[in-house]
Amino acid sequence: MGIHLTALHWVYLAFIVFIMALLVRRRDTTMICVAGIFTLGLIATETLSGSVSGIFNSFIYATKELMGTIMIISIIVAMSRVLIVTGINETMVAPLTRFLRTPALAYWGIGLIMMITSFFFWPSPAVALIGAVLLPVALRVGLPALGAAVAMNLFGHGIALSGDYIIQGAPKLTADAAGLPVSSVMEASVPLVVVMGLVTTVTAYWMMRRDLKKGTFRDGLVTGRSGTGALASADSPDHTPAIVHPAAKRALAILVPILFAIDVIAMFVLHLQGGDATALVGGTAILILLAVTLFAHRNKGLEQMTSYLIDGFVFGFKVFGPVIPIAAFFYLGDAAFTEMFGNVLPQGSQGIVNDLGVALAHEVPLNNVASAITLTVTGAITGLDGSGFSGISLAGSIAHLFATAIGSGAATLTALGQVAAIWVGGGTLIPWALIPAAAICGVSPFELARRNLKPVLIGLAVTTVVAMFLI
């Protein structure tokens, strides 16, 4: 028996459709998200005070959930600015220019490096490292900042995170829910991840090249940015010019990547992942910021350290400002709803978004074609909360249900739901999940989401068809 859907479910779904329509039309959605939170609160609490308070509390909840990402972006930006002011960044990326000599090489090179790095310690810390080092090179050879963001996003938050073959967080969640060994889900996901990755990245590159030739490519730069992304104002007049001896500059340019390489090794040895991996990268960035600032600015280092940190935090919160209201609404689709408005959902509810996914699964006929389509749609729906991971256990459960009914394809269906959920919610379509790549490259997360939309939808369609033959 399926979950009984209430007015809360249908109102939430209606606002999702409205918000997505506005995003496609390039309109701002802040007011609609606030209206959605207010409406849901009014239905849930039946009091004006409860719904009004829910708006503020949902903003606080979203900010707490996003704080780790805000902090890592702010700190990496602060570190990157001192590296640029001192000229260390220029020295550090100089050897890479011989390999990334064209926009095409920059797109595929950044993407592949991002993918490999993300396999080892997930995309959020990876995008900060890769962006800080390779973005200036990409811009220098003519790849737009938005193109670099697309490459980092699709290869990192798409391919690497949806497979998650090293850390294995995603396949473990889906495999446990489906009652399967992790190895079987990982094996079944390989062809799906390969197909999804190839179709999406090739389509995105082709569309970018086409639009650049036609002159219709939207750069998506955040207002006031010159095209060097989060690092654009690094040489702000607020910072005292720093003169570093060329030999010291070369030594520091070697030392900084070595320190981050040690982080990668530590993640392996200490089995760090997710937030722990991000914390290690963030702590390393702060120490680099401290050491380089004191070395370069000497007796003014104390004041300059604070100035760089302020720059980083101002940038981080400025970028996240428009995102928090949207995240606040979509988080209500999961555990946040009960925290905001109490336990008013039906008995057995797994959250509004997951309830909608279960209801969909109970309304479709059980065969190979319908099962594959349903798992893709269910995974995509559960990814709408922007985490990518919250709904993949549900995808595993539904895959088990369908596989039992049709007699085969449990691992493939589980992997398909995992791929769909993470590609949508893990950071390629939902604007606040896109923040790491967008922030580092200085582009609008909404413009990045629009640039990714067609390639990801085409990729999901092709991957679903492939899965039909593999079940």
From TrEMBL:
Highest taxon of source: Bacteria
Keyword field: Membrane, Transmembrane, Transmembrane helix
Coiled-coil regions listed in the entry: none
Transmembrane region(s): 6-24, 31-60, 66-84, 104-121, 127-143, 150-168, 188-208, 251-271, 277-296, 308-332, 369-389, 401-423, 429-446, 453-470
Protein name in the entry: Transporter
UniProt source species: Paenibacillus yonginensis
